[in-house]
Amino acid sequence: MVQIEELGKVIAQIIFNRNSNDGARKNPELIQSVYTFLKLDNDFLLNTPIDGIRTYLDGDDSCGLQRMELASKTLLEESFLLPEAQGKKLRARAKELLEYIQRNANRLLHLVNQLMDYRRAELGVFELKVKKENAHQLIQDNFLFYDKLARHKKITYTLHSELEEKEELFDPNYLELIVNNLLSNAFKYTESGQSITVTLKEENNWLVLQVSDTGIGIPINKQGKIFERFYQIESEHVGSGIGLSLVQRLVELHHGRIELDSEEGKGSTFSVYLPQDINIYKSSELASNDAKNEEDQVYSTNSKEMYFIDTEKVENETIETGDKKRGTILIVEDNNEIRHYLSSGLAELFNTLEAGNGEEALEKLKENEVDIIVTDVMMPVMDGIKLCKNVKQNIRTCHIPVIILSAKSETKDQMEGLQMGADDYIPKPFSLAILTTKIQNMMRTRRRMLERYSKSLEVEPEKITFNAMDEALLKRAVAIVEKNMDNIEFSTDEFAREMNMSRSNLHLKLKAITGESTIDFIRKIRFNEAAKLLKDGRYTIAEVSTMVGFNTPSYFATSFKKYFGCLPTEYIKKAKG
Length: 577
Prior knowledge:
By secondary structure, the protein is an alpha/beta fold. It has helices spanning 4-15, 23-26, 28-40, 42-47, 50-59, 65-79, 84-123, 135-145, 147-153, 172-188, 243-253, 291-295, 336-346, 358-367, 384-393, 411-419, 432-455, 461-464, 468-483, 492-498, 503-514, 518-536, 541-547, 553-564, 568-576, and strands at residues 131-133, 156-161, 168-170, 195-203, 206-213, 257-263, 267-275, 328-332, 351-355, 372-376, 402-406, 424-427.
């Protein structure tokens, strides 16, 4: 059986070559050596966890990792003994070294994953299972995943599809691998101001997927070799020469073909053709109704996020800093170093709180307003799954999004977290930039929802809540206020009693769901009713003021003007036109 130490040495040379920062591109024979190892030992390929390789790399000084790590730690220690200005420069240098380690470790992981994917395809691990499905939805979902990257690189990014409402015959897992490899390749060689276009259509009983770019293009004398394993065109970008070879292999296994149309300096178009004649496929290649068996199939070791690797030199270290710091993130992680890494990385944009396990996190939640929880799974005292369950089953905290970070990346582990109510599950190793973006997206979605709510008179629980508990609570809150619509004595204390909550908890909960205080929530419902009654025209302003719980018409008129910007009389005139 292949020794992991031998494999580790070869992989180490690829990424951390002593004589070059670009060992992978300048030494393709080293990549072939890794492939040879995988080819010699199928048991290693299918059963060795990537952590085993990483453990070797962490301990071998020849790859340069240990020296850089020690250097960065030394710089950090010395920086705190120097005057502030000098110390700041040293800390910046230490950060650069650590980021270099992270970048190259990610490239290493992506490379080994690609090699393992290719070898699995050769061994037939990727069982073809075609079925009728909506190809448009699958391609669109994967297309949108790269939208942020396109905006960051200022690339015009377009999807043209003729199959929105039509089902096609294909293997979803194959097609997802194919489109991700093609998009990753396109972004790698397309620069700012250029464009990438994805086209999906049916042509002469073939499902056609095209990925076109206006990037560097491929010289005519090299186009014949582009699908060869380990072949790399001359470029400033680091590549492995595996992605396109894997795509071709998958297309062939799908009884299809792939074509290239490229011109140097003008760009490239890769066209994938998958047959739609069901008679072309063997009976064993048609998906059965046994969904469970198909879900258990292993198709790739790479997650979608890993296709971002090497598309741009700084892509994995890009963190948006244009927004003002907003929101509070609770980081729950028992490993001190990882917790500090997360906290320091997220602190650029958010306020952060830290907890060493789930139990500590629950205590933090009692004392602090938290917008998002980021938690590990395996922790002492209370793990991340139990924490998520506690958060999502508690009416006071169920609105808080939970992101799970875990080395447990199997489908069943991810399903367990998501079934407990987690809003996202990110396998380790992860990109801090992607985590940050996901947090920002969650907050942006919530902020937009609250903005729409603030501009609307109606309180519609189903439109501003993300879970059944919050929706039920809000419906109950609306019903209680409506029941007490004409009750002049109705107060926030009475409201809290009827909701079976403390006044402070009710305030915090309504603030979290609607962005409004308890008093503002009551006022919104009352003024919404007042507006309806005034438009109806059957009641006087004095009668309406009593019907919505105001003790005098003058106080009602003053409050109405503050809320709507006009007096009730003016509102009636506007309503009548």
